[in-house]
Amino acid sequence: MNNSPGNSKYRKLRAFLFDVDGTMSDTERDGHRVAFNRAFDEFGIDWHWDVDTYGKLLAVTGGKERMKFYADKFLDQDRLPDNLETLIPELHQAKTRHYTELLSTGAIPLRPGVERLINEARQRGFRLAITTTTTPANVTALLTHTLGADAIGWFEVIAAGDIVPAKKPAPDIYYYTLTTMKLSADECIAFEDSANGIKSSKGADVNTIVTINDYTRDDDFDTACLVLDQMGEPDRPFTVIKGNADGHTYLDCDLVIKLHQQYTAS
Ligand code: XBP
Ligand code: MG
């Protein structure tokens, strides 16, 4: 089956693969960062990640990996807690608790256009998946508190956290998703917000649409199909940062299909 009847050079687009942090929602600065700091306070550890420091720490994906990176690269090695190896998973558990509590207050909404695009994709029969580095409980909390209790069931695969050993920028989380859905890369499109995200998706050959945020606006998105400031709404047009939106002012399924055709044409 092809998107254009009688034209065999196009693969049919079947699935939308969504990154979570930064793409579906601006979770990093006012969500994850705050939750890390609350966990440090709870454990009586004198670490504090301000907004700028956290931007540097985002070079490493995964909360446990990020704390290890901070301890290795940002701290005086003579002042590290002795029990760092066991402390990090404990801190991370506390951080996940603080993060999900924060989401349950409704403090962190979805980004513009995300809910609209998901609804349209569902109506038009596209298959959906989540491909993220964050902990599964965080995905459940975000989807539940923004889209409702049923939303987790809209996604055929929730590929998250430690489900693959090598996190983004490694392509493993995308390979896992494609294998589980029994789809090839050219039947999918990914939505990402960061250089680590697009390295991962494109590493698995999945074409990718990027919506930037304050932490990622200077990242390298050379391989993206389209780079936008946000997905946009009918009354809130996006700004195109790179690529051709073909006259569209917000990201809908027709634009996603066009980009997919353009980028998978042989
Ligand atoms: C998300 C991440 C995660 C979160 C923290 O990246 O890097 O580490 O910041 O989540 P992406 P955990 O958007 O590319 O998936 O603390 O649950 O690991
Ligand atoms: Mg992201």
Structure description:
With 266 residues, the protein is an alpha/beta fold. It folds into two domains: 15-26 and 110-264, Rossmann fold (3-Layer(aba) Sandwich); 28-104, Putative phosphatase, domain 2 (DNA polymerase, domain 1). It is built from nine helices and seven strands. The chain has helices spanning 28-42, 51-57, 63-73, 84-104, 114-123, 136-147, 172-181, 195-203, 253-264; strands spanning 15-18, 127-131, 157-159, 188-192, 207-211, 226-228, 240-242. The chain has a seven-stranded mixed sheet, sandwiched between helices. Helix 1 packs across helix 4, helix 3 crosses helix 4 (84-104) and helix 4 (84-104) runs parallel beside helix 6. The radius of gyration is 19 Å and the shape is globular. The chain starts with 14 loop residues before the first strand and ends with a helix. Mean pLDDT is 95; it is low at 1-7. Bound molecules: xylulose-1,5-bisphosphate (XBP) and magnesium ion. The site of xylulose-1,5-bisphosphate (XBP) has 20 residues, from helix 1, helix 3 and helix 8.
